[in-house]
């Protein structure tokens, strides 16, 4: 596979990419995204399945910066660990989550990554309202803790839309808006819109009418300027199923038309979009999905 195999045609002017592995070092993510022809990137800055957070050395940061510069002036986001739950009613888990999130913020600042994507936590049976209040307070405390050690921190925290599985928060635009309303750091909060999650939560984009209604609703409740990043994923699950099951573009319940509408929406041309779809190490799935999205954006005939 060559870097050119997934490159966008010049006319597309897109910011399209994928979540990439950091196995072998943070800088390796840029080799992977270059191989897939991506022009946007998302990574974990460490092993997201472990609480232990290794030190980020100056050498690691310099190597990352050099690899980023060689790749080009394209956007990068980091995703925090799935272990973190800032809405937990358990005091020990909540404290551990605050400390871990503060460290995630310090790491993205060290790496000059402008966005940290995060799930809004789970209330674990305490109720949505109580969970949101707890989450907003813990989020503010984590930001304060990070700024105590890194007062110049400016990374934007992107609350990711969720499917609404179990007791997870963030499946409605109103819940995300409420978090922003309660936070003392609302100016640093934005949204990462996951197409699989929102579809599973009951926000349809499969027809022009449904697509318009969904983003009109988002604009009324949150405001489109806060939408800073997309996760482009089709879904194995039905509409409003509240199940998070990612699928390749055009091969799931959303289908090609929903992604065609999104890729041709001029409001989102400069909003980075990354895949979180299934793939093997050879990245052929990423190349195929990115090529399809670019064809949808350009109006060419497409075949999933």
TrEMBL record:
Keyword Transmembrane helix part of the UniProt annotation: no
Superkingdom classification of source: Bacteria
Pfam families: AP_endonuc_2
Ranges for domain Xylose isomerase-like TIM barrel: 30-285
Gene3D superfamilies: Divalent-metal-dependent TIM barrel enzymes
Cofactor stoichiometry and binding remark: Binds 3 Zn(2+) ions.
Class in the EC hierarchy, top level: hydrolase
Free-text function comment from the UniProt entry: Endonuclease IV plays a role in DNA repair. It cleaves phosphodiester bonds at apurinic or apyrimidinic (AP) sites, generating a 3'-hydroxyl group and a 5'-terminal sugar phosphate.
Name used for this protein in its record: Probable endonuclease 4
Name of the gene this protein is made from: nfo
């Amino acid at each position: 596979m060559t870097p050119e195999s997934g490159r966008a045609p010049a006319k597309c002017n897109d910011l399209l990419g994928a979540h990439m592995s950091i196995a072998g070092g943070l800088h390796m993510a840029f080799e992977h995204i270059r191989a897939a022809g991506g022009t946007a990137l998302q990574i974990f800055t460490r092993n997201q399945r472990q609480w232990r957070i290794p030190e980020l050395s100056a050498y690691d940061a310099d190597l990352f910066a050099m690899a980023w510069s060689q790749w080009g002036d394209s956007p990068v986001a980091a995703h925090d660990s799935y272990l973190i739950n800032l809405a937990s009613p358990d005091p020990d888990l909540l404290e551990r989550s605050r400390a871990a999130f503060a460290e995630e913020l310090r790491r993205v600042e060290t790496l000059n990554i402008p966005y940290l994507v995060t799930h809004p936590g789970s209330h674990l049976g305490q109720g949505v309202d109580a969970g949101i209040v707890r989450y907003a307070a813990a989020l503010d405390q984590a930001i304060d803790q990070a700024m105590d050690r890194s007062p110049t921190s400016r990374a934007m925290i992107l609350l990711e839309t969720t499917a609404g599985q179990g007791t997870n928060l963030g499946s409605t635009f109103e819940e995300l808006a409420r978090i922003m309303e309660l936070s003392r750091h609302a100016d640093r909060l934005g949204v990462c819109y996951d197409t699989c999650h929102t579809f599973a939560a009951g926000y349809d984009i499969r027809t022009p009418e449904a697509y318009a209604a969904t983003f009109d609703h988002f604009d009324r409740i949150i405001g489109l300027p806060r939408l800073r990043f997309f996760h482009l994923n089709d879904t194995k699950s039905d509409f409003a199923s509240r199940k998070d099951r990612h699928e390749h573009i055009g091969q799931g319940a959303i289908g090609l038309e929903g992604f065609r509408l999104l890729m041709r929406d001029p409001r989102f041309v400069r909003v980075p979009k990354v895949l979180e779809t299934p793939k093997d190490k050879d990245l052929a799935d990423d190349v195929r999905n990115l090529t399809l999205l670019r064809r949808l954006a350009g109006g060419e005939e497409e075949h999933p």
